[in-house]
Amino acid sequence: MQRGKKIRVLVAKPGLDSHDRGAKIIARALRDAGMEVIYTGLRQTPQQIVETALQEDVDVIGLSILSGAHKTLFPRIIELLKQKDLTDVLVVAGGIIPEEDIPEMKKLGIKEIFGPGTPTDEIVQFVLKNTSKRA
Amino acid sequence: MLAGNRRSIARAITIIENDNTETQKLIASVYSHTGKAHIIGLTGPPGSGKSTLIEKIIREYRRKDKTVGVIAVDPTSPFTGGAFLGDRIRMQELSTDQGVFIRSMATRNYLGGIAKATKDAAKVLDAAGKDIVIVETVGAGQSEVEIIKVAKTIVVICAPGLGDEIQAIKAGIMEIGDIFVVNKADRENADKAVMDIEAILQLNNKERAWKPPVLKTVALTGEGVPQLIEKIEEHNRFLEKELERKRSREKAEAELVEAIKEKMATSIIEELRSKGKFEEFLQKILEKKIDPASAAEKLLKERFGKHIRKG
Predict the structure, then answer these.
(1) Which end of chain A is more exposed for a tag (fewer CB within 10 A), N or C?
(2) What is the rounded distance in angstroms from the CA atom of residue B132 to the CA atom of residue B36?
(3) How many domains does chain B have?
């Protein structure tokens, strides 16, 4: 790979989940697609996630959540991103998010939600397609 | 950025990483603000505890009210061009501290344990007013010595039981360390590791003014970290003294050259006056028969023969 722009992705696990197997699989798939994946480990607060996104100047944030607290944590993260003027960052999510919550999450500004069983390639393609416009 | 705006710092580092033509302009514009931070390089094999130790080092500096920037380098896959950057995991609690700025960086296939952008990124953090800048190299540790071009103080960290102690003899990394740390010192064989390193250093550094110390730490508990910071600061003071010594030498040299010039000129002029040569050429100059520079050249040629240098 040559020098030049690389897609930088933050894979983050907000809240109190106790395992991160799915997040690591996604991180691996994105890495293998040539992206630079920053992983921060479990139990991140919205503040930590947004501060990390800022310092790392990422193009994408991938949120993985299994605990069911997405309705509390995601709005907080989106709000903080707005406060820090990071609205050009593509935010996607995955994990256990009930079907009926998806419209609300998308309305918030989460661009796509990938449920269990999504082929990793589908996620990679989505990220590639939706980051091409950011300089 | 110079005011420490975090978004601007982050953006500047991205520009540097992408090797934009703007990098040069950027560095030129901040260069006069660099040189204030103490840049510390941390290197050592994978699993020796570099990231965990850095977290404790940051906390110790924060206790002393110092601001800290970190560049944590991890390898890029030579096959896919992608990278998994996981050094932050150990430092995440500090990510919201406004006095700390942590940036993960992939090598992008640059060799030597750092990325091509690392040096300039360190300059950015320096210019942005960070008191301390820590560069964590890729977890390798045999010939990953590029860090010497970036950092003032190099800390080499290892841990007991990572491999045969004879590994430590390998050239390169053993020669660049200013401070050696045996981490995970609560494990058995820690003292043996210290002794092994000390033995090798004795062979290495016979003529060096700075004798690299070997310290023990337990990064998980923070044990030994204040002593490590003290040594880092001692090394910094040593460097400053060295610099001062170098400057004093340069100053003394300049003074000596000046003094010789002055004395020589005075004695030569006196001699020329006493022989009447000075007056003779002075008249010629007044009569516009010769210009002063040519007159001086002629006079000196007569006095010293052909050895006089023109100009």
Answers:
(1) C
(2) 9
(3) 2
